[in-house]
Amino acid sequence: MIRPVFVRHYYSMLLMLLCLFVVCYLMWGHVDLSRSGKTCIPLTNRCLANFAPRSLFSDQSLAEGEESQTCTPVENIFFLKTHKCASSSLQNIFMRYGNSHNLTFILPPWGNYLGYPRKFHKSLIVPHPSGKYNIFCHHTRWSETGVREIMPNATYVTVLRHPASVLESLYSFSKFKSTRYKVDFDTFIRKPAAYFEIKKRSVPPAQNSMLYDFGLDFYDFNNQEKIAQKISDIKREFELVMIAERLDESLVLLRELLCWTWDDVIVFKQNARIKAPTLTAEQKILVEKWSFGDALLYNTSCRIFDEKVRNYGEARMVRDLAILRNRTQAMFDHCVNDLVSKDNIVNPKLKSWSPDVYNFQLQSDEPQCVSLAEQELQFTLQLKRKLWPNKKFTA
Question: Are 116 and 203 within 8 A, CB to CB?
């Protein structure tokens, strides 16, 4: 006769073996543990593990942490593309989404600017036969009246960056040292008023360039009342102001706001400079004093951003950051062979305009890989030809 104690131990062992089998199946069935062998490359805010969840390239989204969504994905979006704020990376998200969902775009007849430095007006666009526009994500100067006239029901989002990083990047990109102010960045910020004369103003300007993108004019740059009113208007008009230095958290919040999937908000960092200097604390303070309007806008927006992150929930944010980072790294490992200069790129879709930034050398020509790495001008031209097949466009 078999004793009851032996029976209990027997069934306990069977249960443990069964549980172990299930765990192993789930781990090995959904994760490819083979290493890519590539150097770990920073994609957004940190360097990620080099393993690729198989479900990233399939429909098994729930297996990788995709929550069951009861909301409706947002398709009408205005993204104010601020200069030198990681906005090209975010723009790529909106262009990919609109293209894959056959949405309409607000686009200029040529190039990638809508009237800048003129404030936006509907006369600046290529009219679409439908009269309806889903996505606006190209450079313009903000006009609430102008945008709402053509996109009355859109969700309004944008991105900001520390004013010192913005100005340094703008100074480098626009070649101000050789073309305009004839001094290096450090010299300029120590006596900016001496160089920033009306006849030498650039567009975007070397002072308060973010507020300028939001429609604040040159002559109001030192008007504290006008600056405070503009910041108040931005708080009212924009549902999400993302922060470039906290891009991962920004993408998590963007995904929730728009009710999109994780793969919709994957991004490869566009236009990352090959040689980017590290600013000193003193340089940051000098720029904050000079562009005090931008500094006030940035600090105010950071406080609001902090509140949104707290409301999202700490544990939930930690979990979702891990999901986003793992999926991003998996896609990067699948698509990208290396980061190179533009001279090493053959495909014109992937070649940057500037020689000073990294380009993506792909190892896969799958459409999802190409769209993640595609440059703004080429992607914009592709969208124009798709939406207006009977018109002729040039980049």
Answer: yes
